[in-house]
Amino acid sequence: MCRTIQADPQARALRDALGQFATGVAVVTASNEHDASVGITINSFASVSLTPALVSWCIARSAARYRVFAQAERFCISILGDDQQDIARRFAASASARIEDRESRPNPPAIPHARASFQCETTHRFMLGDHLMLVGRIAEFEWRPGAPLIFAQGRFRATALPQAPALAA
């Protein structure tokens, strides 16, 4: 007898409600025990502090790449541009996705041509529900102008951001 397991409708409703908040899209990379770089697409990135320079992101404990990131002492977060949907999809879909073009970048590598990248040293790990939150101290960063890739309502979206003066601090 074949039985169909139906998803919890309350969980789906919650996911749809949370999807009303647009987020940026990034790929996090780290190296496994064989020094091969692995990556995963995320939209859970957040700035934590400027002094010291800290950022955070979360990974599901059920993710195929969970163990690599949970054990990583360093990781790199690359904020994707609106022209990098293919990269976001590749690292979201495949546990075996790798970065082919290392361009002599540090290990773990940044995604080439990302809008920004942050080389981080892991400082804290917090188990929170079904996810692990990783906090990292930014050791190096770089950025370039351009429109970011965003994710909202279950879809990647490009944004056309007009050039505007920066807000005063």
Structural class by sheet pairing and helices: mainly beta
Placed side by side, the strands forming the largest sheet appear as 3-2-6-7-8-5-4
N→C terminal distance? 64 Å
Please indicate the count of domains. 1
Q: How big a fraction of the residues is strand?
A: 35-45%
What does this structure look like?
By secondary structure, this protein is mostly beta strands. The protein has a single domain, classed as Pnp Oxidase, Chain A (Roll), CATH 2.30.110. It has 3 helices and 10 strands; from the N terminus they run H-E-E-E-E-E-H-E-H-E-E-E-E. The protein has helices spanning 9-18, 66-71, 85-93, and strands at residues 23-24, 26-31, 37-42, 46-49, 54-60, 74-79, 116-128, 131-143, 149-152, 155-158. The strands form 2 sheets. Strands 3-2-6-7-8-5-4 form a 7-stranded antiparallel β-sheet. A 3-stranded antiparallel β-sheet has the order 1-9-10, with no helix packed on it. The protein is globular, with a radius of gyration of 17 Å.
Quickly describe the structure:
With 169 residues, the chain is mainly beta. The protein is built from three helices and ten strands; from the N terminus they run H-E-E-E-E-E-H-E-H-E-E-E-E.
Describe the protein's topology.
Elements: H1 9-18, E1 23-24, E2 26-31, E3 37-42, E4 46-49, E5 54-60, H2 66-71, E6 74-79, H3 85-93, E7 116-128, E8 131-143, E9 149-152, E10 155-158
Antiparallel strand pairs: 1-9, 2-3, 2-6, 4-5, 5-8, 6-7, 7-8, 9-10
Please describe the structure with a list of short key phrases separated by commas or semicolons.
disordered N terminus; mainly beta; 10 strands; three-stranded antiparallel beta sheet; 169 residues; Pnp Oxidase, Chain A; seven-stranded antiparallel beta sheet
